[in-house]
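FAQ

Q: What does a record look like?
A: Structure on top, sequence underneath. For example:
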């Protein structure tokens, strides 16, 4: 795909919502993630809302403080089903004032997703963000398991099917129900976005339940571009054992020019190892952070 993938002239990412808000910002923090991605190639541009946090009220307040208008969003991308990435969806759609605003997600995003530890609870999208509720709020679901090119230099990953061995299972133990029976949930709906700039790829992920190394390898395989400029998002190593954390940091260290922008579900232990490995090329995400490529 590299020959016709194209390149962006500019990519700007604003963290609208994250677990940390930093100091003296007036912005709100909340467990979850939402990014505004502004991509430009020549005269063509798209403003992409990547995930929507837990609730619309906090997301929209932060957007107002950051000078970002919901009406200017061209499409919504959902990285996976979990409430802390999708809970603000219908509220945001209503605030955008648009009709048929595309909402890209995996076809299985609305399945029942359950956590059993520390106690039983539902952690999926729920009835407030059902397909009918999304449509009524002004959204139009685009359920895709395969990659989709959105414009020159912008690609959705599709389902991450090929996994490196140490990422074969999600770090978070979840179950789903099919035909009245409970079974492990492999989080097949975990998808990412890929951006191509002259200096290389920028890979943006929500929680990396599919495995951050597997996601990066998928991006390289899809585009044929081996230089990864940056990886942005949560890596969900907060529940991982020391071996998996070590193997992940080691694999990321093999990407000679990569910068790491992470937080949310990555976990303190992994963040400390990443800081030690990458130094100034490690940045901890926080609400209000902006960075351009």
């Amino acid at each position: 795909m590299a020959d016709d993938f194209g390149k962006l002239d500019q990519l700007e990412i604003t963290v609208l919502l994250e677990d940390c808000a930093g100091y003296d910002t007036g912005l709100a923090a909340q467990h979850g993630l939402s990014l505004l991605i502004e991509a430009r190639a020549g005269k063509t541009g798209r403003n992409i809302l990547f995930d929507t946090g837990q609730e619309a009220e906090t997301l929209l307040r932060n957007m107002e403080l950051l000078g970002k208008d919901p009406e200017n969003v061209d499409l919504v991308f959902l990285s996976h089903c979990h409430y802390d990435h999708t809970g603000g969806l219908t509220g945001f759609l209503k605030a955008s004032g648009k009709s048929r605003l595309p909402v890209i997600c995996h076809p299985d995003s609305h399945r029942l997703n359950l956590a059993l530890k520390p106690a039983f609870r539902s952690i999926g999208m729920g009835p407030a963000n059902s397909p009918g509720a999304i449509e009524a709020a002004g959204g139009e679901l685009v359920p895709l398991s395969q990659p989709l090119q959105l414009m020159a230099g912008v690609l959705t990953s599709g389902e991450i099917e090929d996994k490196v061995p140490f990422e074969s299972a999600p770090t978070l133990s979840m179950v789903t129900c099919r035909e009245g029976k409970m079974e492990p949930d492999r989080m097949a709906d975990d998808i990412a976005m890929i951006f191509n700039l002259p200096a290389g790829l920028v890979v943006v992920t929500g929680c990396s339940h599919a495995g951050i190394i597997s996601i990066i390898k998928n991006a390289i395989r899809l585009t044929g571009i081996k230089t990864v400029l940056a990886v942005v998002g949560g890596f969900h190593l907060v529940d991982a054992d020391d071996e998996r954390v070590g193997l992940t940091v080691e694999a990321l260290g093999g990407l000679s020019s990569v910068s790491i922008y992470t937080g949310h579900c990555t976990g303190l232990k992994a963040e400390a190892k990443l800081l030690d490995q990458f130094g100034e090329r490690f940045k901890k995400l926080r609400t209000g952070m902006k960075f351009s490529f």
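Q: Is there anything notable about this one?
A: The chain has a mean pLDDT of 96.
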